[in-house]
Every structure is written in C-alpha cells, then in structure tokens.
C-alpha cells in the first residue's frame, strides 16, 4: 500500500517496492521536461527526502513521516529486511 499518492494535498507518490521505497515522478529528481524517480532502502532517508520536498514548497502529508517512523520502530530502517 502506498504511503501517499498524487492529489490535491500531495505533490508526491511514494510506495514500497521490491527495490525499496520509491518516490515516483519525483519533482526533485527530474528536470524541466520529465520527472525523475528516487529509490532508497532506508526509511530514514525517505523521511529526509520528504522534508526536501517540503522545503521546495511541495505538499506532502505528515502521515508519511509518521508511518515511516512507526515502521522504523517496528521493523527497522531497511524495508527489504522486513520479511527476513
């Protein structure tokens, strides 16, 4: 299940995948012609990435940070290790 999807209150689409946590269509990692994609295997790094979005003026709900912090407390930082 995604952390957040594009919408009126969010300028980001962030979801877990087999590669880690993805910020798809990332406005920070793209250029003028095409949005990029940010992938990390660190929940803490994704929290930092979300903060960069906010500093750039992009809306991202606080629930994203809250869920990532809960997951760090429950499972650890690396989402690829959740099922081990």
User: CA-to-CA gap between the ends?
Assistant: 19 Å
Gross morphology: globular
Structural class: alpha+beta
Helix content: 25-40%
Sequence of secondary-structure elements: EEEHH
Portion in beta strands: 15-25%
Overall tally of structural domains: 1
Any overview of this molecule?
The protein is an alpha+beta fold. It has one domain (13-81). The protein has two helices and three strands. The chain has helices at residues 43-55, 63-75, and strands at 13-17, 20-26, 36-40. Strands 1-2-3 form a three-stranded antiparallel beta sheet, with helices on one face. Helix 1 runs antiparallel to helix 2. The longest helix is centred in the middle third of the chain and has 13 residues, at 43-55. The radius of gyration is 12 Å and the shape is globular. The mean pLDDT is 91.
Summarize this structure briefly.
This protein is an alpha+beta fold. The protein contains two helices and three strands.
What are the main properties of this structure?
alpha+beta; 84 residues; 2 helices
List the helices and strands and how they pair.
Elements: E1 13-17, E2 20-26, E3 36-40, H1 43-55, H2 63-75
Helix pairs in contact: 1-2
């Amino acid at each position: 299940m995604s952390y957040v999807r594009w919408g009126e209150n969010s300028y980001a689409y962030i979801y877990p995948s087999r590669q880690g946590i993805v910020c798809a269509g990332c406005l920070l990692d793209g250029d003028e012609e095409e949005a990029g994609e940010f992938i990390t295997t660190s929940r803490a790094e994704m929290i930092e990435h979300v903060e960069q979005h906010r500093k750039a003026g992009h809306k991202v709900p606080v629930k994203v940070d809250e869920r990532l912090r809960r997951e760090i407390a429950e499972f650890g930082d690396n989402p690829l290790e959740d099922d081990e």
